[in-house]
Design a protein that fits this description.
Length: 164
């Protein structure tokens, strides 16, 4: 498991860094997450304990490779979710109706009141923050793709190490 341990440490550090950053933006920076932002955190919540378990608890190469493969799948799914959210922000895709609602179709004040009460306070289709023109959803896409690539490279390296 010479190749897997450094890769798992990097996967773990990257995952903790992304979640730590998201929580800092939320609790220190005051950026309330939208429905999709909260959903995008779940792959990291799953990957962190899995990477910990594989890094520190697994001794058999086959189990380590299976764990890394599962982490790769998690980050590929995370990439797809981040791409969807980024696409919602760019108006390429329709977002969840609860957080990316179109203009009001209310005909009465009471209908408008009901629509406003049902709408999420943070919209998924409007980025709250960006760096170099890329929103947090876009940066999550970059991070997820990077972690998926690292996982796949570690898996390939482990497979080649096994064959050698």
């Amino acid at each position: 498991m010479t190749i897997e341990r450094p890769a798992l440490s990097l996967l773990l550090a990257g995952s903790v860094g992304v979640i730590g950053g998201a929580l800092m933006f939320q609790y220190v920076g005051g950026l309330a997450p939208c429905e999709l932002c909260l959903l995008e955190r779940w792959p990291y919540y799953v990957a962190i304990p899995l990477a910990l378990a594989v890094r520190f608890g697994v001794r058999r190469r086959a189990l380590a490779m299976a764990g890394i493969a599962l982490i790769a799948l998690i980050f590929l799914a995370s990439s797809a979710l981040a791409f969807y959210h980024f696409g919602v922000e760019q108006h390429w895709f329709a977002g969840p109706t609860a957080c990316a609602s179109p203009a009001s179709t209310a005909r009465t004040l009471e209908e408008l009141r009901q629509q406003l009460l049902q709408q999420q306070p943070v919209r998924c289709d409007v980025p709250q923050w960006s760096l170099m023109g890329i929103s947090l959803a876009g940066w999550n896409l970059v991070a997820s793709l990077g972690l998926a690539g690292l996982s796949l490279a570690a898996l390939r390296g482990a497979a080649l190490g096994r064959a050698a």
